[in-house]
Amino acid sequence: MSSIIYDMDKFLAELIKASDYFSEIENDEKEVDFNYVKRLISSIDSKRNELKSKYPKELLDKNFEKVKIIAKQISQSIDNVIKQREAEKKSVALELEKINNKKKIATYIR
C-alpha cells in the first residue's frame, strides 16, 4: 500500500508542477514555452501509464481524488489562458482594422 502512495505522490508532484506553470501563464507571469509543455505532458502521461500498468483500477480510483482536483485546476487554467489569448487576438484585430480604416479615409481625402 505504501508503494502506491509513493507513486501517487510522484504523480501528484508532476501535476502540481504543471498546475503552477499554467497558473503563472494565466497570471501573465510567464510566456508559454511549448517545448516545456510538451515535456511536461509527456512526463505526466508516462507516469499515468506506469500507474495504470502497476496497480488495479479500483485501487487507483480510491487514491485519485487529489489528482482529479488538480487536473480540474489545470484544465481551468488552460481554458482561461485560451480565453485571454482569444480576447487579446480580437483586440489586436480591431485595432488593426481601425488603423486600416484610417488609412483608407486618409487616401480618400487626398
Description of the molecule:
The chain contains four helices and no strands. The protein has 110 residues and is mostly helical. The chain has one domain (2-79). The model has no long low-confidence stretch (mean pLDDT 86).
Give the gist of this structure.
By secondary structure, this protein is an all-alpha fold. The protein contains four helices and no strands.
Instruction: List the uncertain runs.
Output: none
Which whole number gives the mean pLDDT?
A: 86
Determine the oligomeric state from the structure: single chain
Tally of domains? 1
What is the rounded distance between the termini?
81 Å
Global outline? rod-shaped
* Strand percent estimate: under 5%
Structural class: mainly alpha
Series of H and E elements: HHHH
Count of β-strands:
0
Question: How is the biggest beta sheet arranged?
Answer: none
Number of helices: 4
Helical amount among residues, as a percent range?
A: over 70%
Give the helices and strands, then pairings.
Elements: H1 2-26, H2 34-54, H3 57-62, H4 65-109
Helix pairs in contact: 1-2, 1-4
Brief descriptors of the model:
110 residues; mainly alpha
